Amino acid sequence: PMQQQKRQPELVEGNLPVFVFPTELIFYADDQSTHKQVLTLYNPYEFALKFKVLCTTPNKYAVVDATGAVKPQCCVDIVIRHRDVRASYFGVIDKFRLQVSEQSQRKALGKKEIIATLLPSAKEQQQQKEEEEKRIKEHLAESVFFEQTLCQPENRTASSGPSLLTVFLGIVCIAALMLPTLGEVESLVPLYLHLSVNQKLVAAYVLG
């Protein structure tokens, strides 16, 4: 139905997109200022709209101007008050439905649902949010750390710049270690390529 709404903004019953902000209302029991919230209904169309606000639990809320009209390309504010703040309602999700119709018609052209929730405390919510963010940051820091330690050798060979020098030195040292030591008589390698034990130790040290 949502895709259908976006695709067909013709004046067909139920298909007209409704623009309202916000689509979620959060009331906090310990913060009086949040007990009154404002919904803004926008009318981007060339014709006036009538609107009606319905609610799943009308006994909990007072809606100022639950019905009214909004002129073309204008907006209107709808004030919603929570009038029954009690602990048993914490976390319960209520729904409002905003129905719009053209002034000359009775049929609802479009509708939008808004969810409303009552929470005990804004501070508590903020703390939970901060803790959650902290946990996520710590987790990210850990995963980045593990990733780096796992990928380091690979990065060194793959990336360009000074690390190529390290790789080259490594190859030279490995080659040096593989060459015969001075004093080994039976060898296919020419004598000038024979290295002393000390030279091999240096190569092994550099490689390490």
From TrEMBL:
Cellular component per GO, a single term: Golgi membrane
Major localization listed first in the record, in broad terms: endoplasmic reticulum
Superkingdom field: Eukaryota
Keyword Endoplasmic reticulum annotated: yes
Membrane-topology annotation of the record: Multi-pass membrane protein
Domain MSP: 17-141
Cell location: Endoplasmic reticulum membrane; Golgi apparatus membrane
Keywords linked to the UniProt accession: Endoplasmic reticulum, Golgi apparatus, Membrane, Transmembrane, Transmembrane helix
TM region positions: 164-183
Family matches, as InterPro entries: Ig-like_fold (IPR013783), MOSPD1/3 (IPR039283), MSP_dom (IPR000535), PapD-like_sf (IPR008962)
Record carries keyword Endoplasmic reticulum: yes
PANTHER family: MOTILE SPERM DOMAIN-CONTAINING PROTEIN 1
Role description: Plays a role in differentiation and/or proliferation of mesenchymal stem cells. Proposed to be involved in epithelial-to-mesenchymal transition (EMT). However, another study suggests that it is not required for EMT or stem cell self-renewal and acts during later stages of differentiation.
Protein name: Motile sperm domain-containing protein 1
Organism whose genome encodes this protein: Nestor notabilis
